[in-house]
Amino acid sequence: MAINVGTLDRAIRIVVGVVLIGAPFLSGLAVFDAGWATVASIIVGLVMLATATMRFCPLYTLFGIQTCKVS
Fold first, then answer.
1. Rounded distance between C-alpha atoms, residue 63 and residue 10, angstroms
2. Cα–Cα distance for residue pair 21/44, rounded to 1 Å
3. How many Cβ atoms from other residues are within 10 Å of residue 31's Cβ?
4. pLDDT > 90 fraction of the chain, expressed in percent and rounded
5. pLDDT tens sequence across 43-62
6. DSSP code, position 55
7. CA–CA separation, 67 vs 22, rounded Å?
8. Could you give the CA distance from residue 21 to residue 38 in angstroms, rounded to a whole number?
9. What is the predicted pLDDT for the residue at 71?
């Protein structure tokens, strides 16, 4: 598993992941009244945090994308 997520990409993923996990509980938006929206938001947020932590994104591998510097 090669690293393919760069520093800026990683920081964005962390911020977006935290926002997606917190949004159903803190935002008060009507869309989160539906259970599926809450579950989807939490799952996507966890995936974002996991890919940021591992610095590896399987979709980047499929599409040949690499946002980190090659050494």
1. 18
2. 8
3. 12
4. 75
5. 999 999 999 999 999 999 99
6. T
7. 26
8. 9
9. 56
Structure-token match 């990683």, residue found: 10
Give, in degrees to the nearest 5, the angle at Cα 56 between 23 and 62: 105
Radius of gyration of the chain (CA): 14
Residue 1's pLDDT is 79
In the numeric block, which tokens belong to residue 9?
């990409």
Least Cα distance to 9 among 67, 70, 58, 71 occurs for: 67
Find, among 65, 61, 67, the residue nearest to 13 by Cα.
Answer: 67
User: What is the pTM (predicted TM-score) of this model?
Assistant: 0.87
CB contact set of 68 (below 8 Å; sequence gap of 6+): 3, 4, 5, 6, 7, 9, 55
Amino acid, res. 9: D
